[in-house]
Amino acid sequence: MSKEPQYLVQAVLEHRRNKKSRKNEYLIKWLGYDHTHNSWEPEDNINDDVAIADYFADKKREKEGKARLKELLRKKKELEETPSDSEVFSDKEDDAAADDVEAPEVKKARKNGERGSSSRTQ
After folding, report:
1. In the chain, is it the N or the C terminus that has fewer CB atoms within a 10 Å radius of its CB?
2. pTM given for the model
């Protein structure tokens, strides 16, 4: 009685659904063999449930990591679009500086207006 050799799964690399058989297949990296020996195997041929579970756990972590990265990039973009306190303060200073720089006619009109109102109240 000759036994078929048992190959050990090093890792599950990918998965797909076979359209004809309607079964899951996994791209297997075999322990002790290089990547040229990777093969697509139906789920029934794989006797390592832990390798399959690890593969899907890794996929889930990868998906969560991508979602987290996307959220962080969104927040970063929001922060870049929102003016900082120093920019807001700087804008107020610019407005005050602009108020200090008046045309001579405006200054003269203001002075005349102030004198006129003060003489009326006295």
Report:
1. N
2. 0.54
